[in-house]
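User: Second chain of the day. Same drill as before.
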Amino acid sequence: MSTLDSIKAMHADVLDANPESAEDRERLVNELKERGNLAVKAKRWEESDCLYSKAIELGPTHALYSNRSMARLNTKKYAAAATDADECIKLDPSFAKGYYRKAQACEKLREWGPAYDAYKGCLERTKKGKEYDKMQKASEECYKKVCKQMREGKVSVDTSAIERDATTASTPPSLGPVGDSDEARQDRAKKMDNVVTEGGAGGDM
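Assistant: Same format as last time:
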């Protein structure tokens, strides 16, 4: 029996459930979320991915997408993790951790421009402290790599952003690599074999 089959057998009571009422659906989503969070604490990433996926199918929320993004980061599904982070941000643009997940996934995909922009979004929504300083350092490293790509002609540049930031002398401009599509991400993800970095302790909610 495969790992996925084992997971499905272990949680068949919730994964095979098809609630009819809104109340039963909400109850099931909460149960799936709780089990997913327990799997995250035990670092059983495929299990948490499976449980969060069912919960998202029934009642998508920004926290569920963020949690599944974390699970997918830890199973090297970087393109899928970035997509989940995007969905998280769409559902709640004020949620800092959504940008953090996006930054982590883009770093793994070597998309330094989007990674920098995501860190920038996270910093704008994070209180200053140790975590802020850590992300600030990571964003600076991404920007250095963006600058290198600029010199090599591998990024598209938002000229207005450069002029604005040069005038205000605040943060570096927003930049993004050419070909930043889901197809390109999937292709890069298949070729990569990076060391997995954990996406953070525990689920978001």
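Confidence is low (pLDDT under 50) at residues 157-171, 173-180, 191-201.

User: Great, on to the next one.
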